[in-house]
Structure formats: C-alpha cells, structure tokens
Amino acid sequence: MEVKLIPQVDVDIAVILTDAQRQILWVNSDFTRITGYSLHEAEGKKPGSLLQGKNTDPRDVKLISECLTAKIPCRHEILNYRKNGEPYLCKLVIQPIFNTHEEVCNYLAFEVDGDQVTAEALEIPLREMEEKYSSSSLKGVEEIRLFLKLKEYLEEERPFLDPNMSLKHTADHLHTNTKYLSQVVNRLSHHNFQYFINTFRVNEAKKQLICGKYGHLTLYGIALQCGFKNKSTFYKVFKEVAHLTPRQFIMLHRNRYN
Fold it and tell me: What is the pLDDT of residue 245?
C-alpha cells in the first residue's frame, strides 16, 4: 500500500489494535483526542459499533467489512461519530496482522480526522505509523502485546498491592527485560513505570474509600492497603490521577448518591 509522507504535517493519528474478532484491545491517546473515547470505554467493543452512527453510509461499512473478511489491507473514508455525537470524516488504513501460521491474529487501524486535514495535506502522513507498527517486523504490535500482558497481570494478580513491587520483578514475571518494559510503558501510557503502577493503586484506593467495609480505616490505612509506602506520595499521586484529594473524592461520591 503506497502512502506518501508529507513532512511537517501535524495531525493526530489514532491507532487501534483489535483481536481477530475485531474487538478493541488497545487505542492510543490520539484516538481519545479524536473520538472522545478513552481506552477503558473502547476496550472490548468493535470500532464500528462504537463510532458509526445514523448517517454512516452502509456501502462504506460493507466495503471495509469485505476487505477485513478477505484479510487484505483496506484504505477508505467513512463518516464516524465522536462520543459527543458530532460527526466527522474518518480517513483510515487497516492492516491485518498474521501469525506464523498465516492466520489473522489482529487488525491494526490508523485513522485521522479528515475534517482536520488541509487541502495541502490530502495525502495523510501515515507511513511513519505504518512503519512503526509494521506487520513485517511486528515490533510495534509486540510492544502493544507486552503492554496488554502487563495490564492483564496487574488486573488479575494485583501485584501493585505490594509496596515493594519493582520493575525488575515485573519484567522477570513477563519474561522480558527492564529496559524494554520501561520503554513500552513510557511509550504507550505516557508515564514512567512507577507512576503507571501508582494509577492502579489509586483506582484501588477509590474503590476502598467508598466501600463501607473499610470504613474503620484511616485514609493512610487505606493507602497502605493499596500499596503506597507513605502518606505524602499517596496524597500527591491521588490528586494527580483523580484530580481531587481523597476527602474531596469521598464527599463528591456522597453528594452524588444522597
């Protein structure tokens, strides 16, 4: 697929990774900026069901579906809708990703907001993204897979509850090295490893702060249960992630349900 690269064009390029059944596994931050949907909101859904709306042309949907069914790359335009209901012209490229048995294991889509592309940039600068996530080297896709493997480990085994959780121990568990794991986390979450782990601790703390089961504990007591080592770090990271102090979060929740 020949896509010319126009230099010095600043445009958000959404990246979407799905499984073979076309359910979303991961999206990048540009996807959120374009559509309004976070990774949490998009995960597990099919791009079409999430983004298509009443005026999306069924012929466009059919053409894209036929390409995916045929397991061939697709480049097309389609009318999508943002989370706020606003329609926009989506210009997209979809690449099937094959495993060693020549079976499709993932689909990788690159999308831009066509309404934001100027006449001088009709040829969208997608080549850099396609090369980064090339199906020949699978380097970019392997990064995403490691990141998803890390998320699954954190969500299912909850190692972040241990205040001594380390990059080295996590890398060993995931059968990789610390440099590569740190690089992947930084690139895909836009935070360093420690901050990324602390976001899981904050989310756990939010659950415990509004759960009557832990009402006998102080805020610091809950922080310790969630893997924080000291009070100041807990308050600092909680406010950065939740945009509220722990007490403000509790009061907001009480006011909402009273």
Answer: 92
Please compute, for residue 196, the number of CA atoms within 13 A of its CA located in the half-sphere on the CB side. 22
Residue 215: inside a domain: yes
Among 95, 130, 165, the domain-final residue is: 130
Tally of residues, the chain: 258
pLDDT at position 52 is 95
How far CA 192 is from CA of 16, 53, 134, 162, 210, in Å, comes to 22, 37, 25, 18, 28
Q: Are residues 105 and 185 in the same domain?
A: no
Two structure tokens written together for 3: 């896509």
Q: Do 46 and 19 form a contact (C-beta atoms < 8 A)?
A: no
Please measure the distance between the N-terminal and C-terminal CA atoms of the chain and give it in whole angstroms.
57
Residue 114's pLDDT is 84
| pTM for the predicted model, two decimal places | 0.63
In a domain, 51, yes or no: yes
Confirm whether 41 is domain-assigned.
yes
Residue at 4 is within a domain: no
**Residue-range definition of the domain harbouring residue 158:** 145-257
| E runs forming strands in the chain | 14-19, 24-27, 74-81, 87-98, 104-113
Average pLDDT of adjacent 10-residue blocks, the chain of 258 residues: 42 87 90 92 94 95 92 90 95 84 86 72 50 52 84 92 95 94 87 93 91 82 93 92 90 68
Which CATH number is 62's domain given?
Answer: 3.30.450.20
